[in-house]
Amino acid sequence: FLLESAWDPDVGNNSLQHYSISSNGYFHVYTRRRNDSRRYAELVLNRALDREQQAEVAFSITAVDGGTSPSSDTALIRAVVLDINDNIPVFTRSLYKVPVMENSSQDTVVVVVSASDLDSGTNGKIAYSTVQNSEENFETFKMNTETGQIRLKKTLDYEETKTYEIDIQATDGGGLSGHCKVEVQVEDVNDNAPEMIITSLTSTLSEAAPPNTVVALFNARDRDSGDNGRTTCELPGEQPFGIALLVADKYIALVLEKPLDREEQAELDFSVIAADGGSPPRTGSTQVHIFVLDVNDNAPIFTQERYTGQVLENVPEGSVVLSVLATDLDAGVNGDIIY
């Protein structure tokens, strides 16, 4: 770099002879001679500059003449280092893991990503964008290109998608880019009630059925996770049945616990209720209808223990003397009576 020459009106040895430079770590100076013997300073760079480490280098140049008592003059030089786009944007984190509740409303802020660029001016101005964005991500999230803020475009559903991965790019004004990944982890809320599915049902049951007879098999499922998806079953009211778990708790059995009596109750109609472990819990139910079949467990009973009648001695053969009546609580042929 050529520097403006110092002026010395003297001639010969008394004129300007050389230039010197103060210690600075970046520059040194050469004294050059023109054809007319005038001397000038040439500033030479010793090593590469880095504006991000030192944006300005200050030093002094001294011009010295050749007199017996040398005279000199000094100029202060301030070298301002101009920026070039030699730094890419760098995110504060390479991976952002963000939990979001599945019942978060539309336009909820999911995360704000942030990148910095050591360059200045346009070279350091950052714009954010998503890259290789899937259709699902595009429909679910939106990004502010200036702030790096990511918001929801629609509500989430843990039962459909549990995790989203979004690739984010930060691009500076000079076209250099940095990248990071956002992992959105959808957290479950208790938004699903248990479902009761009957896999096997005996719709008719003999009143002589022994205890522990399996009447029905159910499968209770809840699409939620954790305690929200953990179900328990119960029978409301007084029932002759109980609940038992079968096959590693995957199936629920409806089991006879008390004897049946068709003569007291010929049909049983009740609900099986499943509740999950959420707070508050959600419930689901299914209806069960069972017909109790008769067995011949009742003897005929006369309406009276003793019947008394009177008959005249001259009544003809075949005359009705008296009538007796018996009843049987059983049904069908079991209740038909022969005298």
TrEMBL record:
Location in the cell: Cell membrane
GO biological process, one term: homophilic cell adhesion via plasma membrane adhesion molecules
CDD domains hit by this protein: Cadherin_repeat (cd11304)
GO cellular component assignments: plasma membrane
Domain Cadherin intervals: 5-91, 92-196, 197-302
GO molecular function, one term: calcium ion binding
Bilayer topology: Single-pass type I membrane protein
Keyword hit for Transmembrane: yes
Keyword Zinc: no
Keywords, alphabetical: Calcium, Cell adhesion, Cell membrane, Glycoprotein, Membrane, Repeat, Signal, Transmembrane, Transmembrane helix
Family matches, as PANTHER family: CADHERIN-87A, PROTOCADHERIN BETA-1
Name under which the protein is recorded: PCDB1 protein
Organism: Campylorhamphus procurvoides
Lineage: Eukaryota, Metazoa, Chordata, Craniata, Vertebrata
